[in-house]
Structures are given as structure tokens and as C-alpha cells.
Amino acid sequence: MGHPAKSWSNAQTRWGSIEPISGREFFSSEKVQANATHRVRMRYDSAQEITPKDRLLWDSRVFNIVHVAKKREIDHELEIMVEEVVE
Questions:
Q1: pLDDT tens across 27-70, in order?
Q2: d(C-alpha 55, C-alpha 66), whole Å
Q3: Helix (H) or strand (E) holding 42
Q4: Residue 23: count of CB within 10 angstroms of its CB
């Protein structure tokens, strides 16, 4: 009681793909992204940076961002490791 409620706002809508991480990928990435359950790929947009402080919403599912990387260090595609929020 007495704690402010955390609220989120929709900053932008973007196209991308989402795929669950296989068991093998999960265990091989465990050292860096222990909680990642899915991989999201989308175009890089310098006007709208995405960071682990953000969250992703897909249909009614919510994902916390664990790690964001520019694929092959070029400014064309982001690979975002996310953790599904289960409430």
C-alpha cells in the first residue's frame, strides 16, 4: 500500500517476427540471457531506440526485453531476446 502503480504506454507499433527459443539455444545462451524465452527480429530504427527498459506487446502477450543487439553490427536488423511475462 502507498506504492505508485507502474503503468506503460504504447510508444510505437512495428513489424517484426517472434519465435520461441529452442531448448538447445536456451541452454547455450544461458550465461548471457538466462531468462530469455523468445527471439524477436525487427528493422532497426534510429529514431526509436529499443532498450531493456522497454517492453514488447504481441497480441495480448507481454515480453520484457532481456537483451538488444544489432545483427552483425549493422544498422538494418535488431535481434531482441525477450522473456514472456506470465501473470
A1: 555 454 557 789 999 988 877 888 899 999 988 899 999 988 87
A2: 9
A3: strand 38-43
A4: 8
CA angle 72, 76, 77 (to 5 degrees): 70
Cβ contacts of 5 within 8 Å, gap of 6 or more: none
What is the number of H-type helices and E-type strands within the chain?
A: 1, 5
- The mean pLDDT value for 1-28 works out to 72
pTM recorded for the entire structure: 0.72
Which residues, 6 or more positions from 42, have their beta carbon under 8 angstroms from its beta carbon? 14, 15, 16, 17, 77, 78, 80
Segments in the chain forming alpha helices (H) = 23-28
pLDDT over threshold 70, residue 22: no
